[in-house]
Design the sequence.
């Protein structure tokens, strides 16, 4: 199974900050990496698919990059509504696996 | 508008069975792979099962293989998850998800809670 290691697990940042969340796969996942945002009590929402493709309706301050085993989600200028937990997810091979999540708090 | 509405959750004793349903609307159901993903209280996300658009192939992680069965009725735009031999560790919110492109997910339902306890 492919293990997805996310860091940091907790992140506190201010409005306007540039924020980076990392995800490392235990083997090459060929850019089949998505990012989801989840707010408390809600279902996850797709932000980025296949490493760097912005899902329709997602603000352009969100971007993704990476290749091989190392991937990054960047929020260029943090907004108050960006609080929540972020999960990476690999769909390169079965079983599909998620990272353990990064909780983003707004200072 | 894509909508996925799950039903069928509740409290069930260990070793018993439960069947979840997910009614889909707002898209052509039989064009999409569908999946179930769960989240234990206060925990992360775990993929549970996937099914191809025709229903001809299904996929499971080892944690539920042999106990859970995913199926679909394309005429009724409905996805199912039959859960047998339930364990306390199956306690979670179960989400119905639509395949964005085969194996990954774009839209999620609001989730349904399953509690396995005596």
Sequence:
């Amino acid at each position: 199974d492919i293990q997805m290691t996310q860091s940091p697990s907790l992140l506190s940042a201010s409005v306007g900050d540039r924020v980076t969340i990392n995800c490392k796969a235990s083997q090459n996942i060929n850019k089949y990496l998505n990012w989801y945002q989840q707010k408390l009590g809600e279902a996850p929402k797709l932000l980025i698919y296949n490493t760097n493709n912005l899902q329709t309706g997602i603000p352009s301050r969100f971007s993704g990059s990476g290749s091989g085993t190392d991937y990054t989600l960047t929020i260029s200028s943090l907004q108050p509504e960006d609080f929540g937990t972020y999960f990476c997810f690999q769909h390169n091979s079965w079983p599909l696996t998620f990272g353990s999540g990064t909780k983003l708090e707004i200072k | 508008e894509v909508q996925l509405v799950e039903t069928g959750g509740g409290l069930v004793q260990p070793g018993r069975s439960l069947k979840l349903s997910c009614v889909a609307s707002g898209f052509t159901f039989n064009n999409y792979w569908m999946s179930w993903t769960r989240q234990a209280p206060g925990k992360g996300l775990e993929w549970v099962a996937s099914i191809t658009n025709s229903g001809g192939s299904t996929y499971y992680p080892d944690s539920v293989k042999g106990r859970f069965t995913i199926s679909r009725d394309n005429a009724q735009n409905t996805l199912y998850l039959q859960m047998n031999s339930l364990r306390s560790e199956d306690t979670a919110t179960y989400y119905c998800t639509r395949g964005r492109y085969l194996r990954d997910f774009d839209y999620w339902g609001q989730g349904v809670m399953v509690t396995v306890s005596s």
Q: What stands out?
A: Chain A has a mean pLDDT of 97. Chain A touches chain B at residues 1, 32, 34, 36, 43-46, 49, 55, 87, 89, 91, 94-101 (CB under 8 Å). The first strand of chain A starts at residue 4 and ends at 7. DSSP finds no helices and eleven strands in chain A.
